[in-house]
Amino acid sequence: MVLVFFACKKTDYIGSPDASISALDSVKFDTVFTAQGSATRIFKIFNNNKQKLRISNIQLAGGSNSAYQMNVNGNAGVDFSNIDIEAGDSIYCFVRVNIDPTNASSPFIVQDSIGIFYNGNSKYVQLQAYGQNAVYLTNESILNDTIWKNTLPIVLLKKLTIPEGKTLTIEKGSDIYCHGGAGLSIEGTLLANGDTANANRINFTTDRMDYVNNVTNSGGVSYKNLAGAWLGIDFGPKSTGNILNYVTVKNAIYGITDTLNTTVPTTTKLNLQGCIVQNNSGYGVLSRLGSMTISNSLIVNNGSSVGLYNGGNYLLNYNTLAGYSNVYVSHNNPVLYLGGSSDATFNVSINNTILWGDNTSLVNEIGIGNNFGGNNIQIKVDHSLAKYTALPSVIVLSNMLQNDDPGFLLTDNNEVQYDFHLANASPCIGAATPINGISYDLSGNKRNTLNPSIGCYESL
């Protein structure tokens, strides 16, 4: 780490107790996994005076026993003396934290402070981090049927394969954090059974919790929202019987992929119910020659929401596919893309679904590849809201809301805040058709039995 000083012609020191400095009152770290260590956070100490100021001491209160490490003026230590700051200038302080494992299952606070002493004055910068114990997985494959408990978070440090014939079961309420280059490769079966309560959802995301700039406590770009931070969940050609109920997958390169099939599976290979797939740099869901059911799911703010290629059997009921551009992801591709040419069966049935985006130059949120075609294609979209102009006749549209803004409750691209529930004036309210077997929405609210709403959320 390098500290840069700016030259100043003044050489006289200010010795008055009225001398003034400024620095952050606190430096806060997001969740830090025990034994992993944090990224470095930075703060400045400013000399607000017209003369040079000598800081008599900068001290880490916890000393050598602290979980925190400090670097000042290019040197690591816990107590620094006689540090000069030129008039109107500043110095950098660098702070890290490395938390030892404990027996706690819930996050716990780790605190300390840095004291800055000058001219008989003192200022303290409070340090705070939330430690979180976790189960760290470095193996590349499971050997037997395995159950992941929800007692502690799981941290994947490498890509983990579920072999053919083996099943990984994930308990509701489990949190899985994935390091760069990590992800799941499912050759066997994945059973992830969360439920509608937020505390019982199963969450897959990045293990990075710090900010890209590392300078301030807020206002920076957070890695925990950054797309493309880990690999995602991939299903191999021999994988069968996969169930993802109330699972969140975010911040990956591709969220959920099933692209290595050579023929269309004869039974449903992947069932997504109540899933949230967002902030992935590529497709949220990508399939080639797959067999998939997606219902009551929110697939939003990805490079593209859903891509279906070369054939397969796909049933999409009561979903919200949407794209909005923000600092983390740009919406430049249709939320639904159909591509490839094949003589394989290509059945797509989309019902009670929103297909929408904010890019005004993107007039079709249902995208069709230039080479799209085949002899066994049936594409039907019914009782749905979509942005589109002209679509090929192979896509059969009925009971559509065309180019009507769906009226989401909140879409603030600047603040990166979204709520895809329906506002009171939404045209989606009461515009769907009842579907047998789907009585509740993504949040667990009961669907209107006569006139339900389009999208993953029922209007209340």
Describe it.
This protein is mainly β. The protein folds into two domains: 21-131, Immunoglobulin-like; 133-422. 0% of the residues lie in helices and 44% in strands. The protein has no helices and 39 strands. The protein has strands at residues 21-22, 26-33, 41-47, 53-60, 68-72, 75-77, 79-85, 90-97, 108-118, 121-132, 135-137, 146-148, 154-156, 159-162, 167-170, 175-178, 183-186, 189-193, 202-206, 233-235, 242-245, 247-250, 256-258, 270-273, 276-278, 283-295, 298-300, 304-317, 320-323, 336-339, 346-351, 354-357, 366-368, 377-382, 385-386, 395-398, 401-402, 408-412, 417-422. The strands form five sheets. The protein has a 16-stranded parallel sheet that branches. Strands 11-13-16-19-22-25-27-29-32-35-37 form an eleven-stranded parallel sheet, with no helix packed on it. A five-stranded antiparallel sheet has the order 1-3-8-5-6, with no helix packed on it. The radius of gyration is 27 Å and the shape is elongated. The N and C termini lie far apart (54 Å).
List keywords for this structure.
single chain, 460 residues, mainly beta, Immunoglobulin-like, 16-stranded parallel sheet, eleven-stranded parallel sheet, 0% helix, 44% strand, disordered N terminus, Right handed beta helix domain-containing protein
